[in-house]
Design a protein that fits this description.
Blueprint (H helix, E strand, L loop, with lengths): L13 H4 L37 H18 L2 E8 L5 E3 L7 E2 L5 H13 L7 H12 L3 H11 L3 H10 L15 E2 L1 H13 L5 H12 L15 H4 L6 E9 L5 E9 L5 E9 L5 H15 L50 H7 L3
Antiparallel strand pairs: 1-2, 1-7, 3-4, 5-6, 6-7
Helix pairs in contact: 2-10, 3-5, 3-6, 3-8, 4-5, 4-8, 7-11
């Protein structure tokens, strides 16, 4: 998200984006699960899946991160669920609406690809490469293009209706002003990964692009804040970040992830914070919150266990996706198998209000 374009937080949305208005800071995270192994979406060595986390353990992780958020003065929302077990953890404001900034690009990609599959749009190989750049390097010009050809605000309306997202609202101005919640993002990603209401080719493209995450956006901004910093020892992670300055000098920083070769964990953090000394201190504060959530550099690793060099984030170059047989026509993107152990309908109900 280019910092050269200052995004405006309209007064009508301030109550949605600021948990301080409720007299508290809140965090929420969601995790997704399956079984790694021969059916993993990545070939080659894969880090072992973390041991199952109970709801009480995940909630303790969230509570620990929230304590740091209060100390750092960060208004943050977090949600956590383990798709294999249904364990979850979430902050009190997991359903509070925050401005999405560039995280909405996942919704844009989903809707435009779905329109293509329905014969309403035609996308060339060049279009798909541009769309991929919109996810991997958060390209704003690409988002402008696909927002326009996809129909604008109705994109968000269709996504919210198809996935049952109760806290998601279209913008009244531009795509970056879309409103959603940590709970909705976790529900959205869970359903995308499991193939619920998502065609396999759309799922494959989105998860593959998120796993191709690059540390620098096309605008030159570093996008490794939050979860990429906290999950440095996870080998296979897909990220979508969102950031933007507001007209009042405050900053939005959102960090979301699909974690594990089996797509077991899905995490969403949404933050809004004052920046009297510029963006740098706000990023540092958010990193501290995320590291408190995952103190060992991996999900479920105890505090103090971080050691050695961070594991590289897997990309197509280091761990190519497999392409299992599918009854649908061959996609231009590799397919990502659905873990057999996942029970998506149970997960989808976890964060319903």
């Amino acid at each position: 998200m280019s910092s050269s374009r200052t995004r405006r937080l309209r007064s009508g949305r301030r109550g949605l984006g600021v948990a301080a208005a409720l007299g508290a800071v809140a965090v929420g995270v969601v995790a997704v699960g399956g079984t790694a192994g021969a059916g993993s979406a990545f070939a080659g060595p894969v880090a072992p899946t973390p041991a199952a986390r109970t709801t009480s353990a995940l909630q303790a992780d969230v509570d620990r991160a929230m304590a740091v958020a209060r100390r750092e003065g960060v208004t943050v929302s977090i949600a956590v669920v383990d798709r294999a077990t249904g364990a979850q953890g979430q902050s009190a404001n997991a359903h509070t609406g925050f401005l999405t900034a560039s995280v909405v690009k996942v919704m844009i990609a989903d809707d435009v690809l779905t329109q293509r599959d329905a014969g309403k749009l035609t996308l060339s190989p060049s279009d798909l490469a541009t769309m991929r750049l919109m996810i991997t390097r958060s390209d704003d010009d690409a988002a402008d293009h696909f927002w326009s050809i996809g129909g604008g605000d109705p994109i968000v309306t269709r996504i919210a209706r198809r996935y049952g997202l109760h806290d998601t609202r279209p913008p009244k101005d531009q795509w970056w002003d879309t409103t959603t919640s940590a709970a909705d993002l976790v529900s959205l990603y869970s359903q995308i990964v499991s193939g619920t209401h998502t065609a396999p080719d759309v799922r494959d493209f989105i998860v593959g692009a998120m796993r191709g995450f690059q540390p620098t956006g096309t605008d030159g901004e570093h996008q490794t804040f939050g979860l990429p910093t906290a999950l440095a020892n996870e080998r296979i992670v897909g990220y979508k970040q969102g950031w933007m300055p507001l007209a009042d000098g405050e900053w939005v920083h959102n960090s979301t992830a699909i974690v594990g070769g089996d797509n077991r964990y899905i995490v969403a953090m949404m933050a809004h914070q004052p920046a009297p000394k510029g963006e740098g201190p706000t990023v540092t504060a958010l990193d501290r919150v995320a590291e408190a959530l995952f103190p060992g550099g991996r999900i479920g690793t105890p505090a103090g266990a971080r050691s050695g060099s961070p594991a590289p984030v897997a990309t197509e170059a280091t761990a190519p996706l497999t392409t299992p047989a599918s009854p649908k026509p061959a996609s231009t993107q590799p397919a990502i198998p659905r873990p057999a152990a996942v029970r998506p309908t149970a997960v989808e109900r976890l964060f319903e209000s």
